[in-house]
Each structure stands twice: as C-alpha cells, then as structure tokens.
Write a structure and sequence with these properties.
The chain has 149 residues and is an all-beta fold. Helix content is 3%, strand content 43%. The protein contains 1 helix and 11 strands; from the N terminus they run E-E-E-E-H-E-E-E-E-E-E-E. The protein has a 4-stranded antiparallel sheet with strand order 1-2-3-4, with no helix packed on it. Strands 5-6-7-8 form a 4-stranded antiparallel sheet, with no helix packed on it. The radius of gyration is 14 Å and the shape is globular.
C-alpha cells in the first residue's frame, strides 16, 4: 500500500495508507502516542521507540468498521478520523486531549496515557480533525460546528 497522508507530532509520526486501509506510526512512544497498545512491541521488543512504520492494528477497517479518512498529531497524542465520521484518540491525555476524563488526580506529575486508540465519546459524525500541543479539534459533518477538547 502507498502512504497518502502523514502527520508529525513531537518525535513521532502517523501515516495513513491508500484507501484508509491502514494507519501506521513510528518514532517515540513513551506516552502511548504510537497507539500500539500495552502488549504490542516492535520487532526488537521496544515500545518506547519504533524506527520504522508499524500498523496500528486497533484502527484497521475490519476492526472498527470503517476505513480511515485523516490522521493528526499533537505533541504526544494522535487522532484518526474514519470515513464514517468517528474520531479515535490515544497517547498523552494530561489535558484531556484524547477526549476522556483523566483518572489521575490533579497535581500529579504522572501523565495519564491511553496506549491504544479509543473512540472519542461524541455521538456526532465529524468531517475534519486537527491536533495542537495539548488539545484536539474536529468539525462536524452536518452543521460545520467546531468542537475542541
């Protein structure tokens, strides 16, 4: 498959393959931003650094029911948007940039992480996504409303 879109975060990258059939990640992964899950490791057994693109199995179309449309990177988190309009997020969630309330108490120096992609809990379809340093943005399909978290 040919890579048709790339996004770069802080020391990691995401790529979307032709037809949205696969999403790949590579680079630093110490905040879970590679989206590989806790049990998936690179060929050399390393989860904190992957030197070449590796498929994020959790985002395969047959697993989530839709091919990918777009990927985006924040500093330490990743986003993926499906053709059906669902947003998936993973990585550092210190500022709730993955769209989920943190289980870590405020003031803790432990960064809450999501190591495998999870759906962002909105019941509206989105058409575009973007990610900043510690925030995420999506535009709804229907009314072109902007959601930020």
């Amino acid at each position: 498959l040919k890579c048709v879109q790339v996004a770069a975060g802080r020391h990691f990258c995401l790529g979307m393959m032709e037809g949205g059939l696969a999403t790949v990640s590579w680079g630093a992964g110490h905040f879970g931003q590679l989206g590989l899950g806790a049990n998936k490791k690179a060929e050399d057994g390393n989860l904190t650094f992957v030197p070449q693109p590796i498929v994020i199995e959790r985002l395969l179309p047959h697993v989530i029911g839709s091919p990918m449309k777009q990927v985006a990177c924040g500093d330490w988190h990743g986003l993926a948007l499906t053709e059906s309009g669902k947003v998936w997020a993973w990585g550092s969630n210190r500022s709730n940039q993955c769209g989920r309330k943190s289980a870590v108490k405020s003031g803790s120096n432990q960064a809450p992480t999501i190591v495998a992609p999870l759906p962002v809990p909105f019941d509206i379809p989105f058409s575009k996504i973007a990610a900043g340093r510690a925030h995420s943005v999506a535009i709804t399909k229907e009314k072109a409303q902007v959601y930020c978290w």
